[in-house]
């Protein structure tokens, strides 16, 4: 099992846990909108480090992004495996070819 799967399982197990004992439970208790907002904040922090070019800080912020991304998915009951299956489905398909094949309008 990958670290992302382990983390997703931990997050899932925090649903309904005591918000005073777990950051994940606290975040989930605030609802999916707050989880999405927090993900957005973390993404912006990662963007700032990417623009600055500080690789160590970008690495740390990227970890925050991945964690909060998984919390956001869990808040809306979207399984990590479904996201990975979507990525697998896209494998071998060029992004340029996919865009060109989209219906016009
Ligand atoms: N990977 C993480 C992880 N990354 C970041 N965070 C927390 O996310 C929070 C938000 O980080 P910020 O720096 O943005 O916090 P902040 O600036 O105080 O937040 P604001 O008040 O500004 O909104 C911090 O409390 C971090 O500790 C995480 N909390 C938990 N995990 C994982 O989730 C597991 C379960 O954690 P608990 O749910 O707390 O038991 C842990 O064992 C870890 O594996």
TrEMBL record:
Pathway membership, UniProt: Amino-acid biosynthesis; L-histidine biosynthesis; L-histidine from 5-phospho-alpha-D-ribose 1-diphosphate: step 2/9
Subcellular location: Cytoplasm
Keyword Cytoplasm: yes
Record flagged with keyword DNA-binding: no
Keywords: Amino-acid biosynthesis, ATP-binding, Cytoplasm, Histidine biosynthesis, Hydrolase, Nucleotide-binding
Superkingdom assignment: Bacteria
Molecular function terms from GO: phosphoribosyl-ATP diphosphatase activity
Pfam families in the cross-refs: PRA-PH
Parts forming coiled coils: none
Family per similarity comment: Belongs to the PRA-PH family.
Name of this protein: Phosphoribosyl-ATP pyrophosphatase
UniProt organism field: Ruegeria alba
